[in-house]
Inverse folding.
């Protein structure tokens, strides 16, 4: 097959879950299918982006670059004037996969789109207004254009069926994975110490890792932590690691009003090389999101042998199985109580550590890429090719 990928999410200097998922899947697909030809397609006017893409080049990989537009500019223009995608990237592809919710007009080949979540439908107040309306408009079009849809969890598949009309048999669940060569136990303690020193993190800490935005429920987490710190002065520091997303102002306000703010540490964006060390060094990982389409940081924590406290909602129960300690994300008191129980109960943490390491055996990028390639083949067969 000739398989093309829109790789715009890979070009960001501060990649988040969508970009990392695409990166790992593309690498696995290229390696596992040497007889296919892969096209990496992107809009860019910057040499640094070309250098990033060069890291993926192999004998069966080609790049296709349009230097006329930025990716966001093409998206804006094509929303007003439907400029065919094939005008910029040709007609060689049998399958084109868009990993970031949106299919542009005029694509040559079978069109596959990954939908990671529908948070903007469930929790519209957590999303910027312009982003919400852009997603409402563009996802509806993407679903009409898609030959098949990839959902990253069974939860996300059911969300798509709840909000949109689409044949359920053409929605495929392909889980995200975890790279156990990167996220693993037995990391060098000196490496953990170096990362913590660089980020000014004390030896004992509780970790949140992800974007700083309302959907991650950090306002309640900070309030719950402050409540517990008042009666448990020995509670480890709370480290909030990640870049600022949209509508983070209320989170900052909760921090500034917290009596425990001196024990709350902000790291800013964390590069992937640092993430395993931060996870491995934590007393436990806290991920009390209001809503997740998958929740990759949970698997990364499992792989590092780090106990996980997470919310009992959306896809998080599906992904974590019995390997996490669950909390009611809407209850500050429950978050406080579960933080305390994780803090004082060493047996619980040891049990969760063991279960987490067992749980990750069910997830791998290689298995996910194999399933994804089968979906590409199925899409072509449906056209009689």
């Amino acid at each position: 097959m000739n398989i093309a990928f829109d790789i715009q999410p890979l070009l960001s200097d501060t990649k988040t879950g969508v970009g990392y998922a695409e990166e790992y899947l593309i690498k696995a697909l290229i390696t596992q299918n040497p007889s296919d030809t892969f096209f990496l397609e992107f809009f860019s006017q910057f040499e640094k982006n070309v250098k990033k893409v060069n890291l993926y080049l192999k004998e069966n990989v080609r790049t296709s670059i349009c230097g006329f537009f930025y990716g966001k500019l093409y998206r804006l223009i094509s929303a007003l004037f439907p400029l065919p995608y094939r005008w910029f990237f040709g007609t060689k592809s049998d399958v084109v996969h868009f990993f970031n919710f949106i299919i542009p007009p005029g694509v040559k080949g079978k069109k596959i789109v990954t939908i990671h979540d529908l948070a903007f439908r469930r929790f519209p107040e957590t999303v910027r207004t312009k982003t919400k309306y852009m997603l409402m408009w563009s996802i509806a079009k993407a679903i009409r254009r898609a030959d098949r849809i990839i959902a990253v969890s069974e939860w996300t598949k059911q969300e798509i069926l709840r909000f949109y009309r689409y044949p359920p048999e053409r929605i495929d669940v392909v889980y995200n994975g975890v790279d156990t060569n990167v996220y693993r136990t037995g990391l060098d303690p000196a490496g953990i110490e170096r990362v913590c020193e660089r980020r000014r993190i004390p030896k004992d800490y509780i970790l949140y890792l992800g974007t700083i935005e309302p959907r991650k429920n950090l306002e309640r987490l900070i309030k719950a932590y402050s409540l517990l710190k008042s009666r448990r002065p020995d509670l480890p520091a709370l480290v909030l690691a990640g870049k600022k997303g949209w509508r983070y102002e209320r989170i900052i306000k909760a921090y500034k009003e917290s009596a425990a703010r001196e024990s709350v540490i902000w790291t800013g964006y964390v590069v992937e090389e640092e993430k395993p060390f931060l996870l491995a060094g934590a007393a436990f990982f806290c991920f009390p999101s209001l809503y997740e389409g998958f929740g990759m940081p949970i698997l990364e924590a499992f792989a590092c042998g780090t106990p996980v406290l997470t919310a009992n909602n959306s896809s998080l129960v599906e992904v974590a199985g019995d390997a996490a300690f669950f909390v009611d994300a809407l209850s500050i008191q429950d978050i406080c109580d579960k933080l305390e129980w994780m803090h004082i109960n060493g047996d619980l943490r040891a049990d969760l550590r063991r279960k987490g390491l067992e749980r990750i055996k069910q997830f791998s990028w290689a298995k996910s890429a194999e399933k994804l390639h089968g979906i590409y083949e199925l899409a072509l067969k449906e056209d009689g090719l």
The first strand starts at residue 2 and ends at 6. The domain at 189-362 is CATH 3.40.50.2000 (Rossmann fold).
